Prior knowledge:
Order of helices and strands: HHHHHHEHEHEHEEEEHHEEE
Structural class: alpha/beta
Shape: globular
Radius of gyration: 20 Å
Strand content: 15-25%
CATH class of the largest domain: Alpha Beta
Helix content: 40-55%
Number of helices: 11
Number of strands: 10
Distance between the termini: 51 Å
CATH architecture of the largest domain: 3-Layer(aba) Sandwich
CATH topology of the largest domain: Rossmann fold
CATH superfamily of the largest domain: Vaccinia Virus protein VP39
Number of domains: 2
Strand order of the largest sheet: 6-2-1-7-8-10-9
Amino acid sequence: MNDAQFRQLLNRFEFSWSGYRKVKKGVKKRIGRYMTASGYRTMAAFLAELEQNDETRHACELLMTVSISRFFRDRRFWETLEKTLLPKIIQRRDEKISVWSAGCACGDEVYSFMIVWDRLSKTCSNLPGLEMTATDLNPTYLQRARAGIYSHGSLKELTPEIRSQYFRQKPGKKLFQVKKFLKKNISWRIHHLLSDPPGRDFDIVFLRNSVLTYYEEKLKKKALEKVLSRLVPGGILIIGSHESIPFERPDLSGVEPYPYVFSRTAEK
């Protein structure tokens, strides 16, 4: 599959060439293998089938999902979340904090948050309950997330102390599994970010390195509007460090010094 053919495929889904540019090699390989196994000899024939067959379209979209992450990606942000942002939210919540990791991939981000929450539980005397909703379109990624097994490279941002406290190394392998207590209060769900959100009244929404990277402008706006409809006033939205909000939202204000963290204010 050459780049021109890949662009045709991206256009059919309204996906972004610039977003896929750095990961196109692996995605093209997956799609190419699928096309060969399914008997599609040309991109034109495959595109025609995508128009007619929802099952094929869904299978292709799953193959185009990308899972590139690691624990505590953008380390300084996680330190601010633990020391500043979360304590402020906790102050105004007596019963429960609701968090949504939208496009959670293989769970690195979800468990990063759970580590932060557990660390806070040791210093905060009145910690409210936690409800974590973790969603992704790809069921294979969710299966890996539930298992909670990661390579050493995924843990490179962790100190030896945190790694030993929250992970156990698999015997004879350079793989690490999150400890069972870290999996509590997590609801894993298959979800498409263009469909209705999996709940309401979220205090924190992670929307990092997913739709704002891989979708074209029209789909970005549609997905983001749906996500923000469930973020409570005073709640925070976290996007990828190299992403931006594609349209003006007067009810969103930046959280210094991070251009990718936003607080939702009450609409006037």
